[in-house]
Amino acid sequence: MKITSKNMIIMMILIFLIFNQFLGIAWELVKSFFYCILFMILIGQVSPELYNYIIKVIDLNKFNIKDIPNSILTIVNKFKTFIPLFQSSTQKNKIEISDEISDEVK
């Protein structure tokens, strides 16, 4: 491929568009984090009891950067226990697991 002005312009546009996508993703993450902080401040002002409850559910004291996927899964599982549709399936799974354990013990 010869490096001509036309090819250089096309490459610069492609690099700009790709870099722009990364900047857009980073900006969306910053905005989401900012909105979460504002939500927590608002909840803290409106209902301190709900704020304390959410903080206990999330439990940031045990949060490690290495365990981000595990932390997300535990938070999602904690919220799933409050949804009736998921409660019945988790209770069935717990019953099946306890039955399997009792069968293995016998």
Descriptive notes:
Helix content is 83%, strand content 0%. The chain is mostly helical and 106 residues long. The protein has two domains: 1-47; 59-106. It starts with a helix and ends with a helix. The chain crosses the membrane at residues 7-26, 32-54.
Tell me the strand percentage band. Answer: under 5%
Q: So what's the overall shape?
A: elongated
Round the Cα radius of gyration to an integer and report it.
Answer: 24 Å
Span between N and C termini?
Answer: 74 Å
The helical percent reads: over 70%
Q: What structural class do you assign from the helix and strand content?
A: mainly alpha
Q: H/E element string? A: HHHH
Mean pLDDT figure: 80
The oligomeric state is: single chain
Give the count of structural domains.
2
Largest sheet: none
How many β strands by DSSP?
A: 0
> Which stretches are poorly predicted, pLDDT < 50 over at least 5 residues?
none
Number of helices: 4
Short description:
The protein is an all-alpha fold and 106 residues long. It has four helices and no strands. The longest helix is centred in the N-terminal third of the chain and has 42 residues, at 5-46.
What does the secondary structure layout of this molecule look like, with pairings?
Layout: H1 5-46, H2 48-58, H3 68-80, H4 84-105
Helix pairs in contact: 1-2
List keywords for this structure.
106 residues, mainly alpha, 2 domains
